[in-house]
């Protein structure tokens, strides 16, 4: 339930009833907002917000800053995208070449997101300057078919 009431000389009052709470929001003409959480005619919590504080909270609640992802989308992403760690053998054509030289994304559709080298994770390696070494482990993301293509490409001599 949602209700809006005029408060002459003060501002407006909004009442939002949820399954558990009655939330009263008073928007004062000054811009301040008072929020009361009531249950069974008893106030459990009260807060006063400045206009800037209320705007920031409003942006969060309306997902203007951060948008959540539905459960269906998360399940689709989890089924469609796979993170994989693939080791570069000594004899690979990848040795001594960059992501750009190899055109990894163009040839396989896979994105290289990091490289694990000498017990160190190197995030977002520069596609032009970073050169692969034997035994580097590529941390990449793609779908199953793309990752199969990458594994075959890495094993080319």
Textual characterization of the structure:
The protein is an alpha+beta fold. It contains 5 helices and 9 strands. The chain has a 5-stranded antiparallel sheet. A 4-stranded antiparallel sheet has the order 6-9-7-8. Strand 2 and strand 3 form a beta hairpin. It is elongated and about 80 Å long.
Q: Class of the largest domain in CATH?
A: Alpha Beta
CATH superfamily of the largest domain: Regulator of K+ conductance, C-terminal domain
Biggest sheet descriptor: 5 strands, antiparallel
- Residue share in β-strands: 35-45%
| Distance between the ends | 68 Å
Radius of gyration: 27 Å
CATH topological fold name of the largest domain: Alpha-Beta Plaits
The global form is elongated
* Order of adjacent strands in the largest pleated sheet: 1-2-3-4-5
- Helix proportion range: 25-40%
Element-level helix/strand string: EEEEEHHEHHEEEH
Number of strands: 9
CATH architecture of the largest domain: 2-Layer Sandwich
Number of domains: 2
**How much is the average pLDDT?**
91
Break the fold down into its secondary structure elements and pairings:
Elements: E1 2-7, E2 11-17, E3 22-28, E4 33-39, E5 42-49, H1 51-61, H2 71-80, E6 82-87, H3 99-102, H4 104-108, E7 111-117, E8 120-123, E9 137-142, H5 144-155
Antiparallel strand pairs: 1-2, 2-3, 3-4, 4-5, 6-9, 7-8, 7-9
Short description:
This protein has 157 residues and is α+β, with helices and mostly antiparallel strands. It has five helices and nine strands; from the N terminus they run E-E-E-E-E-H-H-E-H-H-E-E-E-H. It has two domains: 2-61, no CATH class; 75-155, Alpha-Beta Plaits (2-Layer Sandwich).
């Amino acid at each position: 339930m949602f209700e809006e009431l005029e408060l002459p000389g003060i501002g407006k009052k909004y009442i939002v009833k949820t399954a558990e709470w009655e939330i009263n929001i008073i928007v004062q003409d000054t811009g301040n907002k008072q929020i009361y959480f009531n249950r069974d005619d008893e106030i459990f919590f009260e807060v006063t917000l400045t206009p800037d504080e209320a705007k920031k909270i409003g942006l969060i609640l309306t997902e203007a800053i951060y948008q959540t992802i539905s459960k269906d989308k998360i399940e689709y992403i989890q089924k469609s995208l796979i993170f994989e760690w693939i080791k570069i053998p000594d004899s690979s054509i990848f040795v001594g070449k960059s992501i750009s030289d190899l055109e990894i994304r163009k040839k396989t559709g896979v994105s290289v997101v990091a490289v694990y080298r000498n017990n160190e994770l190197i995030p977002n390696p520069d596609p032009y300057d970073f050169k692969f070494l034997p035994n580097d482990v590529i941390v990449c993301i793609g779908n199953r078919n793309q990752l199969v293509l990458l594994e075959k490409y890495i094993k080319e001599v």
